[in-house]
Structure formats: structure tokens, C-alpha cells
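Re: Re: C-alpha cell formats

Sure, here are both.
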Amino acid sequence: MSVHHSIAAIAPADWDRLANPPGSEHNPFVQHAFLAALEASGSTTPQTGWTPQHLLLRDALGTPVAAAPCYLKAHSLGEYVFDQAWADALQRAGGRYYPKLQVAVPFSPVTGPRLLAATPELQGQLLAALQHQCAAVSASSVHVTFLPTADAQRLAGPQWLVRKDLQFHWFNKGYRHFDDFLGDLSHAKRKQIRRERRAVADAGVTLRWLHGREVREADWDVFFAFYQHTGARKWGRPYLTRTFFSLLGQSMPDAVALLLAERDGQTIGGALNLLGSHTLFGRYWGALVEVPCLHFEACYYQAIELAIARGLQRVEAGAQGPHKLARGYLPVATHSLHHLAHPGLADAVAEYLRDERAAVGDEQDLLLAHSPFRLTENRLNRLEELDNTPDP
């Protein structure tokens, strides 16, 4: 095992071969260029509480065979799997929760590869290496967040506790046009969406997509103002620097889809999306002018239209948000793995997580019962598929 304090110390070809191997679903968030942009821009540094500790395993010939994007954390910000209550409990008992190790894509509540290896055996070796590194740096715990459900099911055990949460994703059932999607909805929801889209048009707002190198530095300047405005309201301060967006556009332009909302010759809002091979990922949104329903149009309906046009299988519109249900986004389980070095804390958290998983399952059932889709046979099959996803 080797530990690297910068992603730049790992050859991009070696990392990307493990993160997005040929034939797999491409995920832009674990791409070397994305993680490098975070570090080079000053967004993930020791000063911001994200100290890179990327793990790499090699075979007998020295060839990298497994990797994990890992950070030594001095806080729990920017993760979207909330463990502050665990930190408080350990500190009240006289322990120390920080630092901890976080295997994650910073600031991105997006499910995707985290234990970058071709076989379950190598993934198990990565978990063992993470436990070793946890002890080596005197960390309290290791957290592997937003990993695929199948990985969580396979790797869960006494040393790795599973946490479950919900997000809302839109699924493309072979739609040719947005109206095909609307046709699958109940009359009331179809009418609501049309009314919301009309409200944006009636307000004189037009929307424009920019892809890849069409995005100029001036466009990033404008969008960053929107991002700062939203970040200041939600998190107290934005996580990403202005430089990050320039580096993103320069190093992985094919993944960038930027939507700008304009009125009277002025850009008043925008939404940044990243493209995977199968998925459109909605990431950041902001607006400096209040326009009714603009958020729904920019972040949900335009994303659906782009996914349909590109033949993508789904849209992931970010963390939380039961309001997305009425817009055609269904509740989907997300999973994380947690290793807690303190036996007492581990026992207490294990009991808590059992109850939490049951509660999340009940919530998912309740939300699915209020699905906006008409209960045709196809829709019933889809709801049953989501509802019957086994827990780890």
C-alpha cells in the first residue's frame, strides 16, 4: 500500500484505468482530472480541512491494481452523509472524533465507484488498507460514502457498518420527447408541470445550454456568482473556488453542460451539470433574481429534456428534496460504509443504523405510494423494482 498526498502524484492513466475501466459506466466524478481540479484549485487542501490521502495498491510487478480517493478530514462539512451526532457523542465521552478518513468525492453526493478495483477480493484489501491507515494516522474512523449498492451489500460486516439514505432520480423509459414523459404522469401532475414551465416562459426567461468548450471564462464568472449566492445561503460559505470551474472546463470539457437563464439581455441564473456515459448529474444551481418555478425548470425539466435528447438512462439531481417527487423523480436508496475504531461508539452506531435503515425504508415506501406516475402495469413494475431493492 502507498499513500499519496496529491492526486498529481498518481499517473492519470493508472488512476482512470481503475476508476473507469473499459466497458464500465463512466463516472466523471472519480476521473483523475476532476479530483486534480479540486486540489489544484485550492478547494481540497489541508487548509480547507481536506488533506489528500489517496491509497494505491500494486501487484508484484508494481502495476496499480486498486485505489481509493481518500482524505484526512478535520470536520464533517461537504459530505452529505451527516455524522456530527456521532462526533458529539464520542467527544462527550472524552474521545476525539477528528481527524477521520473520508473515502469520497468531495462536495458531490453522487453514487459511484469509491473502491476502485476489478475484483471483490481487491476491494476487501482496500478496506483492510483503509483500516491500517486509520490506525497509522490516529483517525477515529473511516467513511466510504455514496458507493454502489452492490458494493455496500457485499462488503458490509461487523467492521463496516452500512448507512442508508434516499435521493431522487429520474429514469428514462425510452422517451423520445418530454411529452412522452408527461404522458406517463397522472393528470394532476402533468398539469402542474406544464403550469410551472409556462410560468417561467411568461416571466420572459429563456434558457440556453452551453456544452464543453462553448463555456467561456466570462460564463464561468457569471455562474460562479450564482454558485456563491447559493453556497452562502446553504452552507455559510461556498466550498469550491472560482479556479475550480476553469480547470473543470479545461481538463474535462466533454463532461460539462452549463444551463444559463436569461431575461432582458441579462443572465439571471444557471445550473451546472456533468455528463456520464449513462447519467446526467445535476450539480450546482443559483440565481440572483427570484422567478417563480425557475429552479424547477432549470434543474429538473431542462435536465430531463437533455437526458432524453442524449439517450441517457437517468438524471441524478443532487441530495435530498422530496419536492422532486412531484416532478417525476423517484426515491432511490444510497449507501455508505463506516468503520469506527472505538468499540463503544461502533456498538451504539450499529444499533442506531439498524433503526435508521428501517425508518428510511418506511419513508421510501411512503414516497413511492405517492408516485406521480399513472399506475399502468409498467409503472407498477418500476415502483416494485425500486421498493424491493434489498438492504445490505
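Second one below.
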Amino acid sequence: MKIKAFFIKIGQSISKGLRFVLNKISQAWYRLWQTKPMSKVRKVLFYVPNKLTENISFRKRKAIWGIVFVVPLIIGFIYFFFLPFVVTIVYCFSRVYNAGSKSTTGAHIGIVTEWIGFDNFKYILREHTTFRQTLLNSTANTLLSFVLVLVFSLIIAVLLNSKFRGRAFVRAVFFMPVIFNSQAVDVAMSIDAATLDASMDMAMQDVFTRMFNFGDFLINANLPSFAVNFLSTAASQIYDIISYSGVQILIFLAGIQSVPKHLYEAAKIEGATQYDIFWKITFPMVSPLMLTAGVYTIVDSFLRSELLTTINAFKRAGTRGLTSGLGEVSNYGIHASMSLMFALTSILLIAIVLFLMSKLVFYHDE
């Protein structure tokens, strides 16, 4: 308790010092703003806007400022999303060539496209050795991860919402994988990371196999084969489930803490058990956030799939011949077709998940 009181005093002292400094800065700025030189500066700065808007109503001014703030978003959407999307669609149905560079100046000439119809899609779906199977495996793994991560996150959020010693530390522990899985940490630890992960996985699998074979236990329990496969896969992916559940746990934890306390109090007075409280109050009240967590889980899991490795193998220039002997397709067109299939599959998964989960959503205000 003494240590806790000591840190509380330190925090209060720091907050008071920050408030004092910010207050002094704001007062100094206000005094400077009220001086005569600054008043002249204000007149110069606001002269043109005042002249332009002196005959415009307040409602129109609000509309103009709304347009001003939306214009950067529109420019960014067109330049960074819409134009690349259109170019990708064109590349999907074209044989794309790099025209090279000028011999005299070295300047890049550009890209040449030739319409070939659905040849790129025929190649990736019929002739490519691994893309179709990788796409199916990634979709199945994404759906499995969606179910496991969502269930695990909700259970952990309920546990973390209860009062116990060291609750703040445990919450931090469950959120730490989000930081360690970030791009910066991933790049910093990329040296020999694959070898280290493979060695650790082999060691952990060997240890757990010798201690306890979960698959054999389930088979001996006379469970159906689909249940054995599902539970065995879930047990083998427990590390990934914990690693990629941090954001979902925070989403559910925020939703649980926003549930009105009087609902729990009334349920306890009526003699409801914790099981009844979870299914009658917690789950329905948190269900709208399951849509948000579900979409995040689908996107995050699909972006971590092996499919991206297959797609990125075609980023460089080159051509591939069709086995039917009808011509060639370029790596640029293959890359664009794979990217489009990746995007369409992601959208389809999100649409299916939203449609199915929308049937379970309960809105307290309605």
C-alpha cells in the first residue's frame, strides 16, 4: 500500500506540474494575442476570408468549411485508392510489358498493355501449381481463426473485467502481443527469425507430444472425426490465438464495461447465476461489437495468410507461357489478377460473416 501511495503521489505531482506549465503557456499566448501588433496581424490574416464571406449566410459558411475539410480526403482517396484500383483492373485483363528506358537519357518510357481477356485468371486458377489450393486453405484457416479468436477474446474479456489482484498487469500481458506483432518489431527481429521460430515450434511440439497427445485422447473419447480435427487444430494454434487476440479483447472489454451496472444488480437480486448473467446480459449487450471484432479478425487473419507470399512472387517483370499454347501472360497481369482475387475473397468473407452475425446482434436502444 505504501508503494502504491508513493506512485500515486508521484503521478499527482507530475500532473500538477504539467497543468501549471500549460496554464502559463496559454496565459502568455493570450496576452501576446491581445497586443496591438498581433491585432494588426489578425486583421491582415482575416481580411480576405472576411471579404469573401461577409455576404454569405452562416449555414453556407458551414457547408464551405465542410467541403474544405473533405477535399483532402477526396484527393487522397482518388490518388491512393481509386486510380491504383482502376490500373489493377486494367492489368487483370491485359498482357503488361515494361517498355524499358531511353538509351540516351535513361528515362523510363512507360508500360504497354495488350488486351487478353481472362487469360490471367485462367492461368492462376487452372495452370498455377499452388494458388488455387493456397486460396482455399487460407480461406478455411481464416474462418477457423475467426471462430477461435472471437470466442477466446470474449472469454478473456469477461475474466479481465472481474476484480482480482494484478488485473492491470494481466491486461497488459494480453495486449503485449499486439506490440510485438507490429511491423517495426517484426523488422527488428527479422534476422534469423524464421530459423528461431521453426526450432521453437519443433521443440514445443516434441515436448507436448511426449507429455500428452490431445488428438489420441479425443479419439479415445469416441468424439466425431470433425470434432477431433477442429479441437486438435485449435489446440495446435493456441499460441497464434493468444498472439492475435489483443485488439479483440480490448474491444470486448470496452463493451462489457459500458453495460449499465443496474442490469447486473437487478439480475443478482433476482437470483441469477453468473452463467445466466453472461447469456442474458453480457452476451446480448456486447453482440454489436462482435461485428467490429469479427471484421478486424477476418482482415487480420487473411493478411497473415500464405496467400500473400504466393502473390508477391509475381511483382517483378517477366512472362509465363500458357500450357494450352495460346500465348503468354505477364507477371504484372498475374500479380494484378491474384490481388483482385485476394480482395474479392476478403470482401466475400466479410459479407458472409456480417450477414450471419447480424442475426445474433441485439441493440439495447431498439
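Residues 135 and 158 are 34 Å apart (CA to CA). The mean pLDDT is 79.
- S.
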